[in-house]
Amino acid sequence: MESVQTHPAAPALLESTAIAALAALAQPMRLRVFRALVGAGPVGMTPGALGALLDVPSSTLSFHLKELMHAGLVTQERDGRHLIYRAAMARMNALLDYLTAHCCEGAATTCATPPSPDCGTACC
Questions:
Q1: DSSP letter at 75?
Q2: Residue 83 CA from chain centroid, whole number
């Protein structure tokens, strides 16, 4: 198994960890939940707010949040009577690092900027 780290704040991921995270995100509702939590930033969201935003029943949302937590992509914190869910940004960054570690033969700065529409290659 390969461990890769290029982002200084993100812990290195093993291949099996990256696969688990990608598998969790490969389901449409979980991807929507994760994107909503990324959008909420460090403030996070309660299940009620998430359910209202995504128009999903609480039992369905609970199942998907559990799967995202199991994959390490979401954290949960109790705030009094409320649960606050947040995207695990360090894990997300580690996953992005893992996916792009060999981009452009290791020239990560080249891959940091998307190619322009008139560029003929993937890495301009």
A1: E
A2: 19
Distance CA 20, CA 63 (A): 16
Rounded-to-integer distance, Cα 24 and Cα 71, Å = 7
Beta bridge partners of 3: 14
Confidence class for position 48, pLDDT limits 50, 70, 90: very high
Give every CB contact of residue 118 below 8 A, 6+ residues apart in sequence.
Answer: none
Torsion of CA 60, 63, 69, 75, to 10 degrees: 50
CB–CB of 58/51 below 8 Å?
A: yes
SS3 assignment, position 24: helix
pLDDT at 103: 79
- Per residue in 7-26, pLDDT (tens digit) is 455 557 889 999 999 999 99
